[in-house]
Design a protein that fits this description.
single chain; alpha/beta; Rossmann fold; three-stranded antiparallel β-sheet; binds guanosine-5'-monophosphate
Length: 185
């Protein structure tokens, strides 16, 4: 019992400063939804959510859209260390359907070096969609290794490891309603 309580205290000690508050996430998602709805007016959008981190961002963004839209998912594993992706990416779960001729919007949680997204864009572009754009909740411009056309960005953040609102640390903390720095991250 005491052990459990101590473990809980140690866990919360991993949650550092809040970088993006819950209200700011909600406001920005609505703004992005409005912009995307205007840009794709009259078209049917296919949202491609990148699992698992984009989970909450995607579901909130999709409800903020006023255009017709469908959703599909991909899951990717990036080889590399816990904090640095190598750019060598394996597809764990591919899309259910063809994207040929579709207006595709990739919905990502965070773009760090950009290597994962760069791989994903090349892979999807080869399937000949009518258009391919990216909406990322967070980006870390300081860490970028490849130049990518990210059309919609929620927030630019400094070079810190963040958790919450879908983002994990060893699969934990995705359920935090805000984005916080991982203590020591
Ligand atoms: P990139 O290939 O752009 O370097 O890495 C992108 C992926 O690394 C993201 O989709 C995410 O899974 C992970 N990642 C990068 N930075 C962070 C971070 O600050 N927090 C968490 N939880 N994941 C991150």
């Amino acid at each position: 019992m005491i052990g459990e309580r101590l473990a809980a205290v140690a866990e919360t000690a991993e949650i550092g400063d809040i970088l993006v508050e819950r209200e700011d996430l909600a406001r920005r998602v609505l703004e992005l939804g409005e912009r995307i709805s205007a840009d794709y007016a009259g078209r049917t959008l296919l949202l491609v959510g990148v699992l698992k981190g984009a989970l909450f961002f995607l579901s909130d963004l999709m409800r903020a859209l006023e255009v017709e839209c469908e959703v599909d998912f991909m899951a990717l594993a990036s080889y590399g260390s816990a904090t640095d992706s190598s750019g060598v990416v394996r597809i764990l779960k591919d899309l259910d359907a063809s994207i040929e001729g579709r207006d595709v919007l990739i919905v990502e949680d965070i773009v760090d070096s950009g290597l994962t997204l760069s791989y994903l864009m090349r892979t999807l572009q080869a399937r000949e969609p009518a258009s391919l754009e990216v909406c990322a909740l967070l980006t870390k411009p300081e860490r970028r290794k490849v130049d990518l056309p990210i059309r919609y960005v929620g927030f630019e953040i400094p070079n810190r490891f963040v958790i919450g609102y879908g983002l994990d640390h060893a699969e934990r903390y995705r359920n935090l309603p805000y984005v916080a720095v991982l203590s020591g991250g």
